[in-house]
Structures are given as C-alpha cells and as structure tokens.
Amino acid sequence: MPILEPAIRPPSEANSILLQITTGCSANSCTFCGAYVGKKFRIKPFEEVCSDIDTYATFYPHVKKLFLMDGDALVLSNSKLVPILKQINKRLPKVSKISSYANGFNITKRSKEELDELYHHKLKLIYLGLESGSQDILNSCKKKATVEEMVEAVQRANQSHIHTSLMVLLGLGGKKHSKQHIIESARAINAMQPRYLSFLSVMFIPGTKLHEQVEKEEFQPLTPKEYLVETYEILKRLELEQTLFFSNHASNYLPLTGRLPTGKDALLKTLEEALSGEVILKPEFFRGL
Known about the structure:
Blueprint (H helix, E strand, L loop, with lengths): L16 E4 L1 E2 L18 E2 L2 H14 L5 E5 L8 H14 L5 E6 L1 H5 L3 H9 L2 E9 L3 H6 L6 H13 L3 E8 L7 H15 L3 E6 L7 H7 L8 H14 L5 E4 L10 E4 L3 H12 L14
Parallel strand pairs: 1-4, 4-5, 5-6, 6-7, 7-8, 8-9
Antiparallel strand pairs: 2-3, 9-10
C-alpha cells in the first residue's frame, strides 16, 4: 500500500526506506504539533506491512537503513513488532539499522529483555521528543509523556545499546518561561546522556492550539536573539560524555553542529559572535518545518 501522506521523518533518515506500520500518532495532543492533524491513528495489519516489505525487497534490495513510521510505531507490543522486524531482516538482509520515533512511555513499559530483543533485531536508534525538561511547560502544551518517563526511557534504551536522538524545542516556554525551559531542559539532558541531541525552534503552525494562543496573545514568542540565548544557556549547562549535537534544522536561525563535550567551547563562541551581531541569522522567510 502506498505511504499515507503526510510522511514525517527525521532529516537524517533521508536515504532510508520508510516503512509505515502505523498511521498518525496515538497521542496527537501536543499544542505545537501539526504533523498528524486530521490523520487518524491506525495500526496497519501485519499482512499489509509484509506486502510493503516485499515491495521494497524487489525494488530496493541494497538499502542499509530503514525507518519505521508514523509517529508512534513503538506503540506496538513486542509480540506484534518483533515479527515485523524479523520479516525486515529476512527480506532485506542488507538493512543494518532500523530506527523509529518513540514516546517515553513506549520504552518504559518494556522490560530490559524486551528492549534487548528489539536491539537484537536491529532496532538501533529511537528519536524522542523531550521538547522541554520542564514538566510545567509540557503540561501546558499537553504532551502526554512526562519528563520522568522520558529520562527513564533514554537511560533504559542506553542500557540495551539502543541509541537515542533527543529533540529539544527552543522557545516552547515563550518569554514567560524561558529561564525555566533552559535550566530544566539542561538538567534532563544531562541525566539522559543521549547519543544525539538536536535543537529545533518552535514554529507556530496554523490550525494548532499554540498558534491560536499566539493569535490571542496568550503566548508570547521569543525574538530571534532570544532563541540564540536559549541555545547558548542550555549548551553552557550541558555536561555530556559523548554526544553529537545538531542545531541545523530548517526552523533554526543559526545552523550549528558539533561534538560534545570537545566542541562545546567552539559552539559557545559561535553563539557569542551571533549574539554580538557578527554573524548573519537566517531570514524569517527561509525558516521551515
């Protein structure tokens, strides 16, 4: 069956096979997210997924990476997910890494043995949206996973050798809660020790509750400079052992990449130069999702 649009996947999965095993998101409640608005959550039948795998095996037998879609593939229990992974390994033996978006509670509900089983069948990377380390901010944007669940999820994934790509949404607390967003996000990230860390900047998407709050002046967005301040202040507080850092998403005003902790000083220096006006920021009309 053709992929049911819109197809949402991380930029780093651009060269991956996209295997849709669910459509939409089982939570679909976040005030800032317009990715699955109007897209009904559904778990695809096993036979349908196997047919898609067979199609990929015919036309793309040499692809090495595969991404499970949509926003909530790991909502499936191991009893339903592992047979899919086995079929991928059987029909696409050249695939060496399988990845997926994940909610914190979809990891914490699993035992160590179940996470080990997923890794054994090549699930090696999960993308998890922390968004903010502040539970107050998450409550205000109606995110169902708690900070505690997400911290535990990353720690447990690490123990089973499943790498995590963690996403933080700059500006999610607005002007009012920016300091809280900075301090508590840094604290959560340090507890997680993710393999990959990405900063995105909040976008106000028509049709979302957050956009409505901005229109009603109930939420005061940051200025471009204030987004940089949040980036700088979170980075300054990070104490990470081995993390690749990215802040080069289309939503960001200043592209940044580096390795933490070794590249931390260079990143902070670039931000200092940008804050002093020595670096030109991306124009607003070039920003995107």
